[in-house]
User: What shape does this take?
Amino acid sequence: MSEGKVALITGVTGQDGSYLSELLLSKGYEVYGLVRRTSQPTLGRSLINHLNSNENFHLINGDLTDQASIDNAFKEVQPDEFYNLGAQSFVPESWRSPLMTADVTGMGSLRCLEALKRNKPDCRYYQAGSSEQFGEVREIPQTEMTPFHPRSPYGCAKVFAFEITRNYRESYGLYACTGILFNHESPRRGLEFVTRKVTMTAARIAAGFDEYLSIGNVDAKRDWGYAGDYVEMQWRMLQQDEPDDYVIATGETHSVKEFIDLAFFHVGMELTWEGEGVDRIAKDQNGVVRVRTNPKFFRPAEVELLIGKYDKAEATLGWKPSITFTGLVQMMVDSDVALVAEAKERGYAPPMPPE
Ligand code: NAP
Ligand code: F7E
Assistant: This one.
C-alpha cells in the first residue's frame, strides 16, 4: 500500500524521528530527514547512524527557523507525507530560551504548513502535538475536547502549532492532523528528561559511578507510554479518509516517585523515602542516601497531573498501548545497565544526564 511513497521528516535525529524513520523504511518508503548543520557532522546523530547505509534514507539540510530551507526541501523531495517532529522539546529550556522555543516549536509549524501549501498541497501533514497543551488540566482524564491551559513557553508554542494546523486544514482543505501525544519514552529518550535521567543514574549508581540521584518534583504525575508504539499512530493518522486530531496516551498515570522506586528496585535497591518537598531524600536498604531533591530541578509553573483518554484513537486508528508501565521502566533500565557495562568494559565514561 505504501510502496513507493516519499516521506519528509523534521526532527529525524530525535527519539521519535529515529523510530518513525525505521517504521517508514520497513513499509517501503523513501525517507528524507531534515537536519540542521552542525560543526561536527557526525556528533549528536547517533540515533540515526544505523540508517545511513540504507539506500532509501537521505538527509537534507534545513532548519525550522528558516522558511527558505523548508521550501527548498519541499521542492526537492516532493513528499507524499510530511511529519513535523522537530522542536525545542525540553520544557525547562523553554523558560531559558522562550523566544527560540516559540520560533522553532510554534512558528516552525506555520513555516512547514506554508511550504506545503505553496509547493505540495496534496502532501499529508502530521504535527507533533503534546499533552503539555493541557497543562493545568481542566478535566481528568484529558481528551480531544479538553480545553488547553499550557504552563510553559513550550506548551504555549505547541498550542499555537495545534491551532494553526487546524486552521490551515479548515482554511485550505489540507490533509493536516495533530497527534496530541502524552509522554512517550524509550532507551533513545534524551538524557535530560526525567525517565531517562532516572534509569541512567540508577544504572550508574549500581555500577559505582554515582552515589545518588539529584531530582526535582517527584509528586508530578505523567501518562508514560512507549515511543515505538506512538510513532505507529503518527503514521496511521495520515492513512485515514479524513484528517483529524487524536489523543495518544495509555490511560494510566504514575508519579515520578513511582518511576524512581521501580527503576531502583530493578537494579537491586529498595528505597525508603523521608522528608517533604525540596527536603526529600530516599535511602536504600542499607541506609545509604540514593535520591536527593534539588530546588534547581523544580519548575516555575508545574504540570502536576496528566492522564489521557484514547477512546477516539482506539476506535478510529485501532490504537492500544503494547507495553505496561513496569515493562517500560524495565526496558529502559536494562538498556542503560547494558550501556554502562559496555563503557566500563571498554574503559570510557558512561553517558551522564546533564546537570
Ligand atoms: P527530541 O528527541 O527532543 O528531538 C527533537 C528534534 O527536533 C531533534 O531532531 C532536533 O534536531 C530537532 N530540532 C530542534 N530544533 C530544530 C530546528 N531549529 N530545526 C530543525 N530541527 C530542529 O524530541 P522527541 O521526543 O523525538 O519528540 C518529537 C516531537 O514530539 C517534538 O516536536 C516534541 O516536542 C513532540 N512531543 C514529544 C513527546 C515525548 O514525550 N517524547 C510528547 C509529546 C510531543 P537536533 O538533533 O539538531 O537537535
Ligand atoms: O518531566 C518532573 C518534571 O522533563 C516530567 C517532553 O517530551 O513530555 C515531555 O515533557 C516531570 C515534570 O517531561 C525532574 O517537573 C522531577 O513534572 O521528563 P520531563 P515533560 O516536561 O513532561 C511532553 C509531553 C512533551 O511534549 C515534552 O516535549 O518530571 N521532574 N525531577 C523532572 N524532570 C526533569 N526533566 N528532570 C528532573 O530532574
